[in-house]
Known about the structure:
Layout: E1 2-7, H1 11-20, E2 27-30, E3 47-48, H2 59-77, E4 82-83, E5 87-91, H3 94-110, E6 116-119, H4 120-126, E7 136-140, E8 144-146, H5 148-161, E9 165-167, E10 172-177, E11 182-186, E12 191-199, H6 205-212, E13 219-229, E14 240-243, E15 253-256, E16 262-265, E17 269-271, H7 280-293, E18 302-313, E19 319-322, E20 329-333, H8 339-354, H9 382-391, E21 398-400, E22 405-406, H10 407-415, H11 423-430, H12 443-454
Parallel strand pairs: 1-2, 1-12, 2-9, 5-14, 12-20
Antiparallel strand pairs: 3-8, 4-8, 5-7, 6-7, 10-11, 11-12, 13-16, 13-17, 13-18, 14-15, 15-16, 19-20, 21-22
Helix pairs in contact: 1-5, 1-8, 2-8, 10-12
Amino acid sequence: MFDVAVIGGGVIGATILRELTKYRLNVCLLEKEADVAMGQSRANSGIVHAGFDAPVGSLKATFNVLGNAMMEDYARELGVKFKRNGSLVVAFSEEELKTLKELKARGELNGVKKLRIISKEELFEIEPSVSKNAVGALLAPTGGIVCPYKLTVAAVGNAMDNGATLLTEFEVVKINKGENAFTITAKDGKSITAKIMINCAGIYSEEIAKAAGDNSFTVGGRKGEYILLDRECGDFVKHTLFFTPTEKGKGILVSPTVDGNIILGPTAEQVSDKNVETSVDGLKDVQEKAAKMCDKVPFGGTITSFAGTRAYCNIHDFIIEESKTVEGLINCAGIESPGLTSAPAIAKFVVEDLVSKFFEMVDNLDFDGQRKPDDFFNNLSVEEKNNIIKENPAYGKIICRCERITEGEIVRAIKTNPPATNVDAIKRRTRSGMGRCQGGFCQPQVVEIIARELNIPIEQVTKSGKGSYLLRGKTK
Ligand SMILES: Cc1cc2nc3c(=O)[nH]c(=O)nc-3n(C[C@H](O)[C@H](O)[C@H](O)COP(=O)(O)OP(=O)(O)OC[C@H]3O[C@@H](n4cnc5c(N)ncnc54)[C@H](O)[C@@H]3O)c2cc1C
Protein backbone atom coordinates (compact mmCIF):
# COMPACT_ATOMS: atom_id res chain seq x y z
CA MET A 1 0.00 0.00 0.00
CA PHE A 2 1.22 3.51 -0.78
CA ASP A 3 1.16 6.21 1.87
CA VAL A 4 0.24 8.88 -0.69
CA ALA A 5 -1.15 8.62 -4.23
CA VAL A 6 -0.90 11.79 -6.30
CA ILE A 7 -3.36 11.84 -9.22
CA GLY A 8 -2.20 13.88 -12.21
CA GLY A 9 1.30 14.35 -13.60
CA GLY A 10 1.15 18.07 -14.35
CA VAL A 11 3.44 20.61 -12.70
CA ILE A 12 1.37 20.60 -9.50
CA GLY A 13 1.37 16.80 -9.08
CA ALA A 14 5.04 16.67 -10.11
CA THR A 15 6.28 19.26 -7.61
CA ILE A 16 4.15 17.76 -4.82
CA LEU A 17 5.54 14.29 -5.60
CA ARG A 18 9.09 15.61 -5.40
CA GLU A 19 8.38 17.42 -2.12
CA LEU A 20 6.93 14.19 -0.66
CA THR A 21 10.17 12.31 -1.39
CA LYS A 22 11.97 14.58 1.07
CA TYR A 23 10.26 12.42 3.74
CA ARG A 24 10.22 8.69 4.41
CA LEU A 25 6.91 8.06 2.68
CA ASN A 26 5.95 5.51 0.05
CA VAL A 27 4.47 7.66 -2.75
CA CYS A 28 3.18 7.22 -6.27
CA LEU A 29 2.01 9.37 -9.17
CA LEU A 30 -0.91 8.17 -11.31
CA GLU A 31 -1.12 9.71 -14.78
CA LYS A 32 -3.66 8.82 -17.45
CA GLU A 33 -1.39 9.62 -20.41
CA ALA A 34 1.78 7.82 -21.56
CA ASP A 35 3.96 10.65 -20.22
CA VAL A 36 3.83 13.40 -17.63
CA ALA A 37 3.18 17.09 -18.54
CA MET A 38 0.38 16.28 -20.96
CA GLY A 39 -2.32 18.68 -19.70
CA GLN A 40 -2.11 22.41 -18.97
CA SER A 41 1.55 21.97 -18.03
CA ARG A 42 2.39 21.02 -21.62
CA ALA A 43 0.80 23.96 -23.41
CA ASN A 44 1.07 27.26 -21.58
CA SER A 45 2.96 30.55 -21.84
CA GLY A 46 5.82 29.55 -19.52
CA ILE A 47 5.72 32.88 -17.70
CA VAL A 48 6.84 33.12 -14.10
CA HIS A 49 4.47 35.92 -13.23
CA ALA A 50 5.58 38.73 -10.93
CA GLY A 51 2.26 38.66 -9.02
CA PHE A 52 0.47 41.99 -9.62
CA ASP A 53 -2.49 40.41 -11.35
CA ALA A 54 -4.25 38.27 -8.74
CA PRO A 55 -6.71 39.83 -6.25
CA VAL A 56 -5.14 40.87 -2.92
CA GLY A 57 -5.54 38.15 -0.27
CA SER A 58 -6.32 35.37 -2.78
CA LEU A 59 -4.44 32.06 -2.81
CA LYS A 60 -3.40 32.94 -6.35
CA ALA A 61 -1.67 36.12 -5.14
CA THR A 62 -0.01 34.44 -2.15
CA PHE A 63 1.37 31.40 -3.99
CA ASN A 64 2.30 33.47 -7.08
CA VAL A 65 4.62 35.78 -5.13
CA LEU A 66 6.10 32.92 -3.06
CA GLY A 67 6.56 30.70 -6.13
CA ASN A 68 8.19 33.50 -8.11
CA ALA A 69 10.75 33.99 -5.32
CA MET A 70 11.47 30.22 -5.15
CA MET A 71 11.63 29.50 -8.90
CA GLU A 72 15.24 30.46 -9.62
CA ASP A 73 16.77 28.05 -7.07
CA TYR A 74 14.12 25.43 -7.76
CA ALA A 75 14.84 25.36 -11.49
CA ARG A 76 18.60 25.40 -10.92
CA GLU A 77 18.43 22.35 -8.62
CA LEU A 78 16.47 20.48 -11.28
CA GLY A 79 18.77 21.54 -14.12
CA VAL A 80 16.00 23.49 -15.87
CA LYS A 81 16.61 26.86 -17.55
CA PHE A 82 15.01 29.91 -15.93
CA LYS A 83 15.48 33.54 -16.90
CA ARG A 84 14.34 36.64 -15.02
CA ASN A 85 13.68 38.63 -18.19
CA GLY A 86 11.16 41.04 -16.58
CA SER A 87 7.67 41.81 -17.81
CA LEU A 88 5.98 44.93 -19.17
CA VAL A 89 2.27 45.73 -19.13
CA VAL A 90 1.90 48.13 -22.05
CA ALA A 91 -0.70 50.94 -22.04
CA PHE A 92 -2.15 52.32 -25.27
CA SER A 93 -4.33 55.15 -23.84
CA GLU A 94 -4.56 57.56 -20.90
CA GLU A 95 -7.31 55.33 -19.49
CA GLU A 96 -4.97 52.33 -19.57
CA LEU A 97 -2.26 54.35 -17.83
CA LYS A 98 -4.68 54.73 -14.91
CA THR A 99 -5.14 50.94 -14.85
CA LEU A 100 -1.35 50.53 -14.66
CA LYS A 101 -1.36 52.56 -11.44
CA GLU A 102 -4.03 50.24 -10.01
CA LEU A 103 -2.00 47.19 -11.06
CA LYS A 104 1.11 48.65 -9.43
CA ALA A 105 -0.75 49.34 -6.19
CA ARG A 106 -2.25 45.84 -6.19
CA GLY A 107 1.12 44.27 -6.91
CA GLU A 108 2.71 46.15 -4.02
CA LEU A 109 -0.03 44.93 -1.67
CA ASN A 110 0.63 41.40 -2.92
CA GLY A 111 4.33 41.84 -2.06
CA VAL A 112 5.78 42.32 -5.55
CA LYS A 113 9.08 44.22 -5.40
CA LYS A 114 10.57 46.86 -7.75
CA LEU A 115 7.41 47.65 -9.75
CA ARG A 116 7.81 50.88 -11.74
CA ILE A 117 5.71 52.78 -14.27
CA ILE A 118 7.92 53.84 -17.16
CA SER A 119 7.49 56.49 -19.87
CA LYS A 120 7.00 55.63 -23.52
CA GLU A 121 10.52 56.91 -24.21
CA GLU A 122 12.03 54.44 -21.74
CA LEU A 123 9.73 51.70 -23.07
CA PHE A 124 10.89 52.24 -26.69
CA GLU A 125 14.49 52.30 -25.52
CA ILE A 126 14.30 48.90 -23.77
CA GLU A 127 11.85 47.33 -26.26
CA PRO A 128 12.29 49.02 -29.69
CA SER A 129 9.78 46.67 -31.38
CA VAL A 130 6.82 47.84 -29.30
CA SER A 131 4.22 49.76 -31.33
CA LYS A 132 4.72 53.52 -31.36
CA ASN A 133 1.04 53.84 -30.31
CA ALA A 134 2.06 52.80 -26.76
CA VAL A 135 1.98 55.56 -24.13
CA GLY A 136 3.78 53.89 -21.18
CA ALA A 137 4.17 50.62 -19.31
CA LEU A 138 4.38 48.94 -15.93
CA LEU A 139 7.80 47.32 -15.55
CA ALA A 140 8.03 44.25 -13.29
CA PRO A 141 11.71 43.21 -13.16
CA THR A 142 10.88 40.06 -11.12
CA GLY A 143 8.89 38.47 -13.98
CA GLY A 144 10.57 35.47 -15.55
CA ILE A 145 10.35 32.59 -18.03
CA VAL A 146 10.75 28.83 -17.66
CA CYS A 147 9.84 25.79 -19.75
CA PRO A 148 6.70 24.34 -18.14
CA TYR A 149 7.01 20.77 -19.38
CA LYS A 150 10.75 20.54 -18.70
CA LEU A 151 10.12 21.68 -15.12
CA THR A 152 7.40 19.03 -14.76
CA VAL A 153 9.48 16.22 -16.30
CA ALA A 154 12.48 17.16 -14.16
CA ALA A 155 10.46 17.27 -10.92
CA VAL A 156 8.96 13.82 -11.61
CA GLY A 157 12.36 12.43 -12.65
CA ASN A 158 14.00 13.73 -9.50
CA ALA A 159 11.15 12.33 -7.36
CA MET A 160 11.61 8.92 -9.04
CA ASP A 161 15.36 9.07 -8.44
CA ASN A 162 14.45 9.61 -4.79
CA GLY A 163 12.15 6.59 -4.60
CA ALA A 164 8.73 7.67 -5.97
CA THR A 165 6.78 5.35 -8.29
CA LEU A 166 5.29 6.62 -11.56
CA LEU A 167 2.36 4.75 -13.14
CA THR A 168 1.53 6.09 -16.60
CA GLU A 169 -1.52 5.12 -18.68
CA PHE A 170 -3.32 4.81 -15.34
CA GLU A 171 -6.57 6.67 -15.96
CA VAL A 172 -8.37 6.84 -12.64
CA VAL A 173 -12.06 6.02 -13.12
CA LYS A 174 -13.13 4.68 -9.73
CA ILE A 175 -12.22 5.53 -6.15
CA ASN A 176 -13.43 3.56 -3.11
CA LYS A 177 -12.85 4.87 0.36
CA GLY A 178 -12.33 2.03 2.83
CA GLU A 179 -11.73 2.18 6.57
CA ASN A 180 -8.02 3.15 6.34
CA ALA A 181 -7.27 3.52 2.65
CA PHE A 182 -8.48 4.43 -0.80
CA THR A 183 -8.67 1.82 -3.55
CA ILE A 184 -8.00 3.66 -6.79
CA THR A 185 -8.93 1.84 -9.99
CA ALA A 186 -7.85 2.61 -13.54
CA LYS A 187 -9.84 2.26 -16.74
CA ASP A 188 -8.10 -1.03 -17.61
CA GLY A 189 -9.04 -2.53 -14.23
CA LYS A 190 -5.66 -2.20 -12.48
CA SER A 191 -5.85 -0.81 -8.97
CA ILE A 192 -3.65 0.47 -6.17
CA THR A 193 -4.32 1.37 -2.55
CA ALA A 194 -3.14 4.46 -0.71
CA LYS A 195 -3.71 5.91 2.76
CA ILE A 196 -4.29 9.41 1.40
CA MET A 197 -4.85 10.84 -2.07
CA ILE A 198 -3.94 14.20 -3.62
CA ASN A 199 -6.12 15.30 -6.51
CA CYS A 200 -3.99 17.24 -9.05
CA ALA A 201 -5.97 16.27 -12.15
CA GLY A 202 -6.12 19.79 -13.67
CA ILE A 203 -9.21 20.30 -15.82
CA TYR A 204 -10.42 16.86 -14.65
CA SER A 205 -10.01 17.57 -10.93
CA GLU A 206 -13.81 17.94 -10.58
CA GLU A 207 -14.28 14.38 -11.94
CA ILE A 208 -11.66 12.95 -9.55
CA ALA A 209 -13.18 14.73 -6.53
CA LYS A 210 -16.65 13.48 -7.52
CA ALA A 211 -15.37 9.89 -7.95
CA ALA A 212 -14.15 10.10 -4.35
CA GLY A 213 -17.48 11.54 -3.15
CA ASP A 214 -16.72 15.29 -3.05
CA ASN A 215 -19.15 17.39 -5.14
CA SER A 216 -18.15 20.76 -3.72
CA PHE A 217 -16.74 22.47 -6.84
CA THR A 218 -16.87 22.54 -10.62
CA VAL A 219 -14.00 22.99 -13.07
CA GLY A 220 -14.52 24.24 -16.62
CA GLY A 221 -12.17 24.75 -19.55
CA ARG A 222 -10.99 27.98 -21.16
CA LYS A 223 -8.91 27.41 -24.28
CA GLY A 224 -5.83 29.43 -25.25
CA GLU A 225 -4.22 29.28 -28.69
CA TYR A 226 -0.60 30.13 -29.48
CA ILE A 227 1.78 30.79 -32.36
CA LEU A 228 5.46 29.92 -31.91
CA LEU A 229 8.18 31.68 -33.90
CA ASP A 230 11.57 30.24 -34.87
CA ARG A 231 14.64 30.79 -32.71
CA GLU A 232 15.97 33.05 -35.47
CA CYS A 233 13.34 35.59 -34.33
CA GLY A 234 14.58 35.24 -30.74
CA ASP A 235 15.86 38.81 -30.36
CA PHE A 236 12.56 40.36 -31.42
CA VAL A 237 11.57 41.16 -27.80
CA LYS A 238 13.43 40.66 -24.53
CA HIS A 239 10.71 41.22 -21.93
CA THR A 240 7.32 39.53 -21.66
CA LEU A 241 4.86 42.05 -23.09
CA PHE A 242 1.27 42.07 -21.79
CA PHE A 243 -1.63 44.27 -22.84
CA THR A 244 -3.26 46.31 -20.07
CA PRO A 245 -6.23 44.23 -18.83
CA THR A 246 -9.64 45.66 -19.73
CA GLU A 247 -13.23 44.54 -19.10
CA LYS A 248 -12.90 42.47 -22.28
CA GLY A 249 -9.95 40.49 -20.85
CA LYS A 250 -6.17 40.45 -20.66
CA GLY A 251 -5.44 40.11 -24.36
CA ILE A 252 -2.42 38.12 -25.46
CA LEU A 253 1.27 38.30 -24.66
CA VAL A 254 4.37 38.54 -26.82
CA SER A 255 7.37 36.97 -25.11
CA PRO A 256 10.66 35.22 -25.60
CA THR A 257 10.66 31.62 -24.37
CA VAL A 258 13.48 30.40 -22.20
CA ASP A 259 14.69 28.27 -25.16
CA GLY A 260 14.98 31.33 -27.40
CA ASN A 261 11.78 31.21 -29.48
CA ILE A 262 9.10 33.91 -29.48
CA ILE A 263 5.63 32.95 -28.24
CA LEU A 264 2.44 34.84 -29.19
CA GLY A 265 -0.88 34.14 -27.43
CA PRO A 266 -2.95 32.84 -25.73
CA THR A 267 -6.53 33.56 -26.73
CA ALA A 268 -9.24 32.96 -24.13
CA GLU A 269 -12.24 30.98 -25.28
CA GLN A 270 -14.74 29.20 -23.03
CA VAL A 271 -15.04 25.59 -24.18
CA SER A 272 -17.52 22.94 -23.10
CA ASP A 273 -15.54 19.89 -24.21
CA LYS A 274 -12.13 20.88 -22.71
CA ASN A 275 -10.63 20.53 -26.21
CA VAL A 276 -7.11 21.60 -27.17
CA GLU A 277 -7.41 22.06 -30.95
CA THR A 278 -6.22 25.24 -32.65
CA SER A 279 -8.64 27.10 -34.94
CA VAL A 280 -8.32 29.46 -37.89
CA ASP A 281 -10.19 32.22 -36.02
CA GLY A 282 -8.14 31.75 -32.86
CA LEU A 283 -4.79 32.01 -34.64
CA LYS A 284 -6.00 35.00 -36.66
CA ASP A 285 -6.94 36.69 -33.40
CA VAL A 286 -3.42 36.02 -32.03
CA GLN A 287 -1.83 37.52 -35.16
CA GLU A 288 -4.01 40.65 -35.07
CA LYS A 289 -3.32 41.31 -31.40
CA ALA A 290 0.42 40.64 -31.72
CA ALA A 291 0.53 43.15 -34.60
CA LYS A 292 -1.15 45.72 -32.34
CA MET A 293 1.49 45.19 -29.62
CA CYS A 294 4.57 45.25 -31.85
CA ASP A 295 5.62 46.67 -35.20
CA LYS A 296 6.80 44.22 -37.85
CA VAL A 297 6.14 40.94 -36.02
CA PRO A 298 8.17 38.32 -37.98
CA PHE A 299 5.18 36.05 -38.69
CA GLY A 300 7.24 34.48 -41.50
CA GLY A 301 9.20 32.73 -38.76
CA THR A 302 6.13 30.79 -37.56
CA ILE A 303 7.14 27.17 -36.93
CA THR A 304 4.08 25.81 -35.17
CA SER A 305 0.83 26.60 -33.37
CA PHE A 306 -0.77 24.86 -30.40
CA ALA A 307 -3.50 25.23 -27.80
CA GLY A 308 -3.94 24.54 -24.09
CA THR A 309 -7.01 24.57 -21.89
CA ARG A 310 -7.04 26.36 -18.55
CA ALA A 311 -8.82 24.79 -15.58
CA TYR A 312 -10.91 27.53 -14.03
CA CYS A 313 -13.23 26.75 -11.17
CA ASN A 314 -16.45 28.25 -9.87
CA ILE A 315 -14.81 29.88 -6.83
CA HIS A 316 -12.36 31.87 -9.03
CA ASP A 317 -9.35 30.99 -6.90
CA PHE A 318 -7.12 27.93 -6.39
CA ILE A 319 -8.66 25.17 -4.25
CA ILE A 320 -5.84 23.81 -2.08
CA GLU A 321 -7.27 22.08 0.97
CA GLU A 322 -8.34 18.82 2.54
CA SER A 323 -11.80 17.92 1.28
CA LYS A 324 -14.55 18.90 3.71
CA THR A 325 -16.49 15.74 2.91
CA VAL A 326 -13.88 13.01 2.21
CA GLU A 327 -11.26 12.45 4.88
CA GLY A 328 -7.81 11.81 3.43
CA LEU A 329 -8.53 13.53 0.10
CA ILE A 330 -6.53 16.70 -0.58
CA ASN A 331 -7.76 18.75 -3.53
CA CYS A 332 -5.41 20.91 -5.61
CA ALA A 333 -8.07 21.90 -8.07
CA GLY A 334 -8.83 24.75 -10.44
CA ILE A 335 -5.12 25.56 -10.65
CA GLU A 336 -5.17 27.88 -13.64
CA SER A 337 -2.67 30.70 -14.19
CA PRO A 338 -0.48 31.50 -12.24
CA GLY A 339 -0.28 27.79 -11.38
CA LEU A 340 3.08 27.19 -13.06
CA THR A 341 4.65 30.10 -11.15
CA SER A 342 3.03 28.98 -7.91
CA ALA A 343 3.89 25.28 -8.17
CA PRO A 344 7.00 25.12 -5.90
CA ALA A 345 5.20 27.11 -3.19
CA ILE A 346 1.97 25.10 -3.49
CA ALA A 347 3.95 21.84 -3.22
CA LYS A 348 5.72 23.00 -0.06
CA PHE A 349 2.44 24.08 1.53
CA VAL A 350 0.57 20.90 0.59
CA VAL A 351 3.26 18.63 2.03
CA GLU A 352 4.28 20.65 5.10
CA ASP A 353 0.81 21.88 6.12
CA LEU A 354 -1.71 19.33 4.77
CA VAL A 355 0.00 15.93 4.30
CA SER A 356 1.81 16.36 7.63
CA LYS A 357 -1.53 16.02 9.46
CA PHE A 358 -1.70 12.36 8.41
CA PHE A 359 1.85 11.12 8.98
CA GLU A 360 4.82 11.50 11.22
CA MET A 361 7.10 13.35 8.80
CA VAL A 362 10.53 11.71 9.11
CA ASP A 363 13.22 13.28 6.88
CA ASN A 364 14.52 11.14 4.00
CA LEU A 365 18.22 11.58 4.70
CA ASP A 366 19.09 10.11 1.28
CA PHE A 367 17.11 12.80 -0.61
CA ASP A 368 19.18 14.39 -3.39
CA GLY A 369 17.42 17.35 -5.02
CA GLN A 370 19.94 17.85 -7.83
CA ARG A 371 19.20 16.63 -11.37
CA LYS A 372 21.55 16.70 -14.35
CA PRO A 373 20.08 18.96 -17.07
CA ASP A 374 18.53 17.08 -20.00
CA ASP A 375 20.44 19.46 -22.32
CA PHE A 376 23.77 19.07 -20.46
CA PHE A 377 25.60 18.00 -23.64
CA ASN A 378 24.81 21.25 -25.44
CA ASN A 379 26.37 23.28 -22.66
CA LEU A 380 29.75 21.53 -22.81
CA SER A 381 32.94 22.84 -24.39
CA VAL A 382 34.18 21.22 -27.63
CA GLU A 383 36.86 19.40 -25.64
CA GLU A 384 34.35 18.04 -23.12
CA LYS A 385 32.05 16.96 -25.97
CA ASN A 386 34.94 15.16 -27.68
CA ASN A 387 35.74 13.26 -24.49
CA ILE A 388 32.13 12.07 -24.19
CA ILE A 389 32.02 11.12 -27.89
CA LYS A 390 35.17 9.02 -27.42
CA GLU A 391 33.42 7.07 -24.65
CA ASN A 392 30.05 6.92 -26.40
CA PRO A 393 30.09 7.58 -30.18
CA ALA A 394 26.28 8.03 -30.19
CA TYR A 395 26.97 11.57 -28.90
CA GLY A 396 28.83 12.24 -32.14
CA LYS A 397 25.86 11.45 -34.36
CA ILE A 398 23.47 14.35 -34.99
CA ILE A 399 19.84 13.19 -35.37
CA CYS A 400 17.92 16.50 -35.23
CA ARG A 401 19.75 18.92 -37.51
CA CYS A 402 17.65 21.99 -36.68
CA GLU A 403 18.28 21.78 -32.93
CA ARG A 404 21.57 19.79 -33.22
CA ILE A 405 20.44 16.92 -30.98
CA THR A 406 22.54 13.76 -30.94
CA GLU A 407 21.62 10.09 -30.75
CA GLY A 408 23.31 9.96 -27.33
CA GLU A 409 20.89 12.56 -25.96
CA ILE A 410 17.88 10.70 -27.38
CA VAL A 411 19.01 7.38 -25.87
CA ARG A 412 19.63 9.16 -22.57
CA ALA A 413 16.04 10.53 -22.60
CA ILE A 414 14.73 6.97 -23.00
CA LYS A 415 16.87 5.70 -20.13
CA THR A 416 16.48 8.59 -17.66
CA ASN A 417 13.57 9.01 -15.23
CA PRO A 418 10.79 9.52 -16.24
CA PRO A 419 11.58 7.41 -19.33
CA ALA A 420 10.53 8.88 -22.69
CA THR A 421 8.71 6.11 -24.57
CA ASN A 422 7.23 7.98 -27.56
CA VAL A 423 8.26 10.59 -30.12
CA ASP A 424 6.66 13.59 -28.39
CA ALA A 425 8.16 12.61 -25.05
CA ILE A 426 11.62 12.62 -26.68
CA LYS A 427 10.81 16.02 -28.17
CA ARG A 428 9.83 17.49 -24.80
CA ARG A 429 13.07 16.33 -23.16
CA THR A 430 15.63 16.91 -25.93
CA ARG A 431 13.98 19.45 -28.34
CA SER A 432 14.53 16.95 -31.16
CA GLY A 433 11.82 17.85 -33.71
CA MET A 434 11.20 21.31 -32.24
CA GLY A 435 13.11 23.28 -34.82
CA ARG A 436 12.18 24.79 -38.16
CA CYS A 437 11.39 21.45 -39.88
CA GLN A 438 9.31 20.24 -36.91
CA GLY A 439 10.63 16.69 -37.10
CA GLY A 440 10.39 16.32 -40.88
CA PHE A 441 13.95 14.97 -41.11
CA CYS A 442 14.64 13.46 -37.68
CA GLN A 443 11.35 11.75 -36.82
CA PRO A 444 12.01 8.48 -38.75
CA GLN A 445 15.37 8.11 -37.02
CA VAL A 446 13.87 8.89 -33.61
CA VAL A 447 11.25 6.17 -34.23
CA GLU A 448 13.99 3.66 -35.03
CA ILE A 449 15.96 4.56 -31.90
CA ILE A 450 12.87 4.19 -29.68
CA ALA A 451 12.06 0.77 -31.19
CA ARG A 452 15.65 -0.39 -30.73
CA GLU A 453 16.06 0.87 -27.17
CA LEU A 454 12.65 -0.36 -25.95
CA ASN A 455 13.06 -3.59 -27.91
CA ILE A 456 9.63 -3.29 -29.54
CA PRO A 457 8.52 -3.69 -33.18
CA ILE A 458 8.82 -0.36 -34.99
CA GLU A 459 5.07 -0.38 -35.78
CA GLN A 460 4.36 -0.13 -32.05
CA VAL A 461 6.19 3.18 -31.61
CA THR A 462 3.67 5.99 -31.05
CA LYS A 463 3.65 9.73 -31.45
CA SER A 464 2.24 10.34 -27.96
CA GLY A 465 0.97 7.04 -26.51
CA LYS A 466 -2.43 5.32 -26.65
CA GLY A 467 -2.86 4.16 -30.26
CA SER A 468 -1.16 7.18 -31.89
CA TYR A 469 0.80 4.81 -34.15
CA LEU A 470 3.02 6.31 -36.83
CA LEU A 471 3.52 3.27 -39.07
CA ARG A 472 0.83 0.93 -40.39
CA GLY A 473 3.04 -1.84 -41.82
CA LYS A 474 5.66 -2.58 -44.48
CA THR A 475 4.99 -1.35 -48.03
CA LYS A 476 7.70 -3.52 -49.60
C1 LIG B 1 -3.22 28.57 -22.13
C2 LIG B 1 -2.59 28.58 -20.76
C3 LIG B 1 -1.61 29.52 -20.41
C4 LIG B 1 -1.05 29.53 -19.14
N1 LIG B 1 0.00 30.36 -18.88
C5 LIG B 1 0.58 30.33 -17.65
C6 LIG B 1 1.74 31.12 -17.38
O1 LIG B 1 2.28 31.78 -18.26
N2 LIG B 1 2.23 31.12 -16.11
C7 LIG B 1 1.67 30.40 -15.11
O2 LIG B 1 2.13 30.50 -13.98
N3 LIG B 1 0.62 29.59 -15.36
C8 LIG B 1 0.08 29.51 -16.60
N4 LIG B 1 -0.96 28.70 -16.88
C9 LIG B 1 -1.49 27.86 -15.81
C10 LIG B 1 -0.66 26.60 -15.63
O3 LIG B 1 -0.38 26.00 -16.87
C11 LIG B 1 -1.46 25.64 -14.77
O4 LIG B 1 -1.86 26.30 -13.59
C12 LIG B 1 -0.66 24.42 -14.37
O5 LIG B 1 -0.06 23.83 -15.49
C13 LIG B 1 -1.61 23.45 -13.70
O6 LIG B 1 -0.96 22.25 -13.46
P1 LIG B 1 -1.78 21.01 -12.94
O7 LIG B 1 -0.76 20.02 -12.56
O8 LIG B 1 -2.78 21.44 -11.92
O9 LIG B 1 -2.67 20.53 -14.19
P2 LIG B 1 -2.27 19.80 -15.52
O10 LIG B 1 -0.97 20.22 -16.04
O11 LIG B 1 -3.45 19.93 -16.41
O12 LIG B 1 -2.10 18.29 -15.08
C14 LIG B 1 -3.18 17.46 -14.77
C15 LIG B 1 -2.80 16.04 -15.12
O13 LIG B 1 -3.80 15.16 -14.65
C16 LIG B 1 -3.93 14.11 -15.57
N5 LIG B 1 -5.24 13.49 -15.37
C17 LIG B 1 -6.46 14.04 -15.62
N6 LIG B 1 -7.44 13.15 -15.32
C18 LIG B 1 -6.82 12.03 -14.86
C19 LIG B 1 -7.29 10.76 -14.43
N7 LIG B 1 -8.59 10.47 -14.42
N8 LIG B 1 -6.40 9.83 -14.04
C20 LIG B 1 -5.04 10.10 -14.06
N9 LIG B 1 -4.55 11.28 -14.50
C21 LIG B 1 -5.42 12.24 -14.88
C22 LIG B 1 -3.80 14.83 -16.92
O14 LIG B 1 -3.49 13.94 -17.97
C23 LIG B 1 -2.71 15.83 -16.62
O15 LIG B 1 -1.42 15.31 -16.93
C24 LIG B 1 -1.52 28.63 -18.16
C25 LIG B 1 -2.48 27.67 -18.49
C26 LIG B 1 -2.97 27.61 -19.80
C27 LIG B 1 -3.90 26.50 -20.18
